[in-house]
Amino acid sequence: MKSSTRWLLTGAGLAALAIGPSLPVLAASSPAQATTTPAANLRIELDQLLGAHAVLAQLAMEAGYKGASDYSGYVSQLNQNTAALSQAIAGIYGAAAGAEFQKMWQGHITDFVNYVIATKEHNAAGQQAAIHALEQYKTQFANFLAGADPHINATTLADSLQVHITQILATFNAYVRGQYATSAQDFVTAYDHMFMDGDYLAGAIAQQFPAKFAGTSPDTAAVNLRATLDELLGAHAVLAQLAMRAGYLGTPMYQPWASVLSQNTASLSAAIGSVYGAQAGQKFQVMWQGHITDFVNYVVATKENNTTAQSAAKSALEQYKTQFAAFLASANPHFNATILADSLQVHVNQLLATFTAFVGGQETTATTDFTMAYQHMFMDGDYLASGIVQQFPSQFGVSMSGATSPVTGFPILPMAIAGGAAALVGATLLRRRPAHAIR
After folding, report:
1. In this structure, is residue 155 part of a structural domain?
2. Least crowded by CB within 10 Å, which of 56, 241, 286, 383?
3. Where a domain ends, among 219, 253, 280?
4. Are 240 and 295 in contact (CB under 8 A)?
């Protein structure tokens, strides 16, 4: 999966965002808990919610522009996401702050909607008015959060919010122009960027309230591993569903979605390969791509009303889950094959359920299941990260007694997962393409 490199963002203030707050790093009680400290959980919660916001906002804008029947479903999920983000802020800063956050956050969503409407009406003045409102929002919102937390820099955050705005509009504009490959790439870029924002906010909050987060830091190699796997697996669930829908409808977005899904598969395979070796990475890629092909076969069978082929695709997915779980468990004694297989079956069931609801015109169910499938992949990422850190504690800055070491460059996820004798910070897992010029 390709996207903008997190430390190559435009705007002078983003240099500070890439460096992030300086945080104390205290000992985890054990390697098994190194990925699930209070600060780690805060970071993952914010990452998951903000990543979902980018996905749902873009899908709602595209559905609204083309008048698709799933527009209201995406809007409903987006509203629920806004409520969840607001509740998270309220849990830190109080109900009044949470309410203010929700008002401002919903306001920028409304600005995006206004931009879509103006685009549909070929209203250039309306488009500019929406862009102007978004520019005002970024400054007001950044000042609001900086006023609540002295570890948040208003200029840094405003610059990052401008990147978010620019990316969302770029994705939508490319879609409107029929530049579908660009739109799909920009879609992933916008998704990835929100994880950087989540990382930055988590670092500032943890620094402001060390007691609330047990003095733990979201900036450790173990937590970075968890966040990286979560980000990639969450993207897999989103892109797989979008590719399945586009394939069924025969839209020109099918190949672009399939392309970024393949990039995502390559990144996941590189992760496994960097931990367990190139041969394991290659085997992972073959098996992972195999289950994607099974989903494609199910889509084709559905289009052809071929129930026999549908059953065959389901059978292949059932075989995959067992074989894939056994493959991972054989590489790591901390992985349980049954647990992995059961979770993979949930993933399979969710993707088939949301696709079936989509085909059946059950838009509310389809969009709800869409979000659930995305959320589930974070559970898988969390499980894999925990097992890997337990297997290679010293490579993730965790001694057998449970101490953790600092990782420079917060909140940048290290574009690496190291195993064996390789050091985490020195290896490369994901080398992302430079941002587009407009960013």
Report:
1. yes
2. 286
3. 219
4. yes
What does the block give as tokens for 197?
A: 């924002």
Claim to verify: residue 260 and residue 143 sit in the same structural domain: no
Burial of 279 (0-12, 13-18, 19+ CB in 10 A): exposed
The CA–CA distances, whole Å, from 5 to 73, 109, 193, 408, 433 equal 32, 25, 9, 16, 6
Give the global pTM. 0.85
Tell me which residue range forms the domain holding 18: 14-219
Per-residue tokens: 55: 């996905």
- The backbone torsions φ and ψ at residue 404, rounded to the nearest 5 degrees and listed phi first, read -115, 155
- 191 and 235 together in one domain: no
Q: Which of 203, 216, 195, 205 is nearest to 398 (CA)?
A: 216
On the 0-12 / 13-18 / 19+ scale of CB atoms within 10 A, 356 is middle
pLDDT tens digits along 20-74: 443 333 344 467 789 999 999 999 999 999 999 999 999 999 999 999 999 999 9
Write out pLDDT tens, residues 210-269. Answer: 999 999 999 899 999 999 999 999 999 999 999 999 999 999 999 999 999 999 999 999
Read off φ and ψ for residue 398, nearest 5 degrees.
-120, 115
Q: Are residues 24 and 58 in the same domain?
A: yes
Same-domain check for residues 250 and 370: yes
Q: Which residues contact 63 (CB under 8 A, 6 or more apart)?
A: 70, 71, 74
Cα 149 → chain centroid? 25
Q: How many C-beta atoms surround the C-beta of residue 118 within 10 A?
A: 18
- Answer yes or no: do 235 and 207 share one domain: no
Backbone angles phi and psi of 394, in degrees to 5: -70, -25
CA distance 320 to 348: 10
Rounded Cα distance between 411 and 3, Å, is 16
Q: Is residue 416 part of a domain?
A: no
Q: What are the Cα distances from residue 257, in Å, to 14, 142, 214, 251?
A: 29, 33, 42, 11
